[in-house]
Amino acid sequence: MLIGPHRVFYYGLLGRPGVRNFGCATLYVSDLEPLQVNVGNGWSTCHIAWVPPYTPHRVRTADRHLAVVMLEPEYTDTVMAGACIQRKLQENASAVRVRILEGVMRLQQVATSARLSDAEFDDLLFGQPLPRRLLDSRVSHVVDRICENTADPCSASCLADSEGLSLSRFLHLFKAETGVCLRKYRAWRRARTLLYHVRSPSTLTDIALETGYPDSTHFSHSIRRIYGLPPRDIVSGSRRLRVRLQVSGAGQISPAASSRKLPSGAAVMVQGSAFA
After folding, report:
1. Residue 96 in contact with residue 85, Cβ under 8 Å?
2. Which of 41, 119, 239, 243 gets the highest tally of CB atoms within 10 A of its CB?
3. pLDDT score recorded for residue 38
4. Calpha distance 162→166 (Å, rounded)
């Protein structure tokens, strides 16, 4: 699994998730057997499924193996990106699927000390950069602040003051720009932070507090509501998951992640994981 601040690429086993509701756009790609996706209007069978941000859905596949690409909508224009991907699927769906499934092997050709830019990530999986999302600068500052520290206790009023806005104006502007209310956005970004801790030796309580949850009960309920799985299942199912962690700033991957080299074959990148 490649984890960056704006994108995630996962290749491995599918757990048995219930309804999930990611705050990112999600592209599911089947490995051998077709997958099935239900976005509230019944099950549909396909090899590639695009799910927009904040869309409750379920996914399953007979061989429990698939690839998942996650794109954060505040940094990528997921409406345009979805349309672009759909055009590619109409032109040659098989080529799109093969390129994404082979993404693991292409990752091995990138130095483990390198930090992929969003454009490099997109080119690796899609063959071209996806359209960027441009937010109002004030909202963009707040989004970056939340993404950099999901445990930041700063209130909505504090965030509004930091950008010189009244609370009501800030909340209205935030939703208009991102398409989601501040509270829901923070809930997703906090839950997303769990991905950085799936290989952590810390207890679930420690992870909960470190990522900004007031207690382990709130942590468990929130994670289950968003991922369709309790955090215990996600962490225990990721013990053998190989992770390549991207961090902002110096352009370096964390020492813990860089010490785990990717295998030579995509099929063995993940020997067992319940994340997806």
Report:
1. yes
2. 243
3. 97
4. 10
Residue 235 CA: distances (Å) to CA of 156, 207, 220: 31, 11, 12
Lookup: tokens for 161:
């003051």
pTM of the predicted model, to two decimals? Answer: 0.87
What is the predicted pLDDT for the residue at 199? 87
CB-based burial, 187-200: b 16+ in 10 Å, e otherwise = bbbbbbbbbbbbbe
pLDDT in tens, 133-163: 999 999 999 999 999 999 898 999 999 999 9
Q: Give me the amino acid identity at 19.
A: V
Nearest to 184 by CA among 58, 22, 69, 7: 22
What share of residues in the chain are helix, strand, coil (percent, to 5)?
Answer: 40, 15, 40
Neighbours of 33 (CB within 10 A): 14
Q: How far apart are CA 261 and CA 94, in angstroms?
A: 29
Q: Alpha-carbon distance 145 to 117, whole Å?
A: 19
pLDDT in the model for residue 19:
97
- Cβ neighbours for 271, distance < 8 A, ≥ 6 positions apart: 240
Which residues are CB-contacts of 229 (< 8 A; sequence separation ≥ 6)?
15, 16, 17, 18, 20, 223, 274, 275
Q: What average pLDDT score do residues 231-259 get?
A: 65
pLDDT one-digit tens code per residue, 6-47: 999 999 888 889 999 999 999 999 999 999 999 999 999 999
Question: 232: part of which helix (H) or strand (E)?
Answer: helix 231-236
Q: How many CB atoms lie within 10 A of CB 218?
A: 12
Q: Cα–Cα distance between 17 and 228 in angstroms, integer? A: 5
- What is the phi/psi pair of residue 167, to 5°? -60, -45
